Prior knowledge:
alpha+beta; Phage tail protein beta-alpha-beta fold; 54% helix; 6 strands; three-stranded mixed sheet; three-stranded antiparallel sheet; 23% strand
Amino acid sequence: MALRTATRRMILRLTAGALCALAVFAVLPHWLEDRAARAEWQKGLHGKIEGTRLVYRNATLGEAIDDLNRYSSLRIVTLPQLRRLAFNGELPGPPDTMSAARQLARQTGLALVDAGPHWAVVPPQD
């Protein structure tokens, strides 16, 4: 009976050790790589990532559009004079680009329109 218990404990310890080794050698490098890639991606952002949101303080409309274009295949453009408009607000973070573009237009009082191969943030058409 004591031999069985000792054998079970040994098997349990070996299994726990193998799982720890798997975590250290298989999972940890990918987790660190993902963190490094995310940190690199965040370097060029004009907005600050807070949770799942992009937060802008003292930014311009053009900077917010540049951020949205950076993390998505959706292309958003606007007129040069509109790019200079001040923008302070929050937008959904990746991967919800279309929702973020709609909120950006709404928060600035502009309109988001389908302009062929891209979307455009323009003054509202009455």
